[in-house]
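Cross-posting from the modeling subforum.

Setting up a comparison between two proteins and wanted a second pair of eyes on the formatting. Protein 1 (sequence, then structure tokens):
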Amino acid sequence: MTFKNYLKISFANFDKTWKLIFYRIIVWVIVIGLIMPFYNVLKDIVVENWNRQLFEDFALAGLFYGGSIAPVFVSVIDVLISVLTALFTNHLAAGIYICVVLFLLRPIFMNVGRFVVNEMMYGYMSSHAKHGFASTWVRTMKKSLPYAFYRTLFCLPFNVATAAIFYLLLTVNGTEFALAMPFVFLIIATIILFVKHFLTMGWAPAMVVSGENVYRAFGKGIAAVARGAARSVLFCLATYFACILLALGLGVFSLVIIVPVFNVVSSMFEMMNFFSCQGMRYYVDKETVLSSKKLEEQDTITKAKFLL
């Protein structure tokens, strides 16, 4: 599939962008609602450890604004550690509950939205059908929930590793390294998150297209993506590099826009890439149906013996 066709299909399905963003807003509203019973507890702990000046520095901490971001993030992380320590020391049950809601339930339902977009893209590319987000969400719940649960667990070590490396780099002493630290983190984080995305980008499409269960679809997704490895690697590296660079440059609050846009782009690309890697026919528009290279045309000479 050419880049031109990717753009055509993406623009033809631009409505999915707003639907997924709106869905993510709903998920956040529900998450906040689930946490609200502990609002007073969180407020007291945060106010005790946070101050207005630190918030202003944090909001303006970005490479594009000049200066080093390392000192600000060190202070913010120290505050977060103090908040979590106070929360789990004085309100253990509330701390566990809030962590489960934020770091388990929230990503699970965000990944359900990713699966729904893949299902909708499959309908468009296979038969030029457009399905509603809500109806697809309900119809695919039996498949999307297992996918979302296991994808959340699979991605957790990669996300934790990225956060841990960021913290370790911040603690390295030296003025010179403080200036270089964002760029070192940019490279390391891009590599870690690239590996995560490369291993998972064919997972949902394999479940949608082939009807495989969540376990077999994981292996089948990797095998499919590996056939178009160059294209898959380029997409993963380019998107993560751009997203992390923008987040470091514009500040943490830019993630409010960057993360939803990235999820829409990556979810749509996953299905388009899977079609291309599998050599499947697809609709570009109502009157145009194209064919990708067949599987045997994508295999190299060294792999030919496995086709026999």
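Protein 2 (same layout):
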Amino acid sequence: MFEEPNVKTLNHKFKIAHDAEGYVEDYTSEPATKKEIDNAIKDLKKNKHEFMAIGRSCWECNGAHIHLIDMPAMNCFSCGRIYHNGIDITDYTGSKYEKSTHIKRNEKNKTTST
């Protein structure tokens, strides 16, 4: 990895923002739910999307790449994040970024007894 990922947007879902004329202006993001991330991972596996052979940097590393947000199966060569259709599906478990993400992948379902 060459760039440190933006820890404020780990495991977020990203959307292209258009201006009044419909041109790509910027992008927005919000935290993805664990279910959204899990569904994106299932879709990635189910549809057997292939990652690009030629690496590209993501829109977080290079603002000129906003048009790649909706791309399936993207792995940023610069920061190492993995995206599927605009969702950061990277598993940060065990990495130095684990404490910065809102997704806890190792949480067991808690049940309450009555």
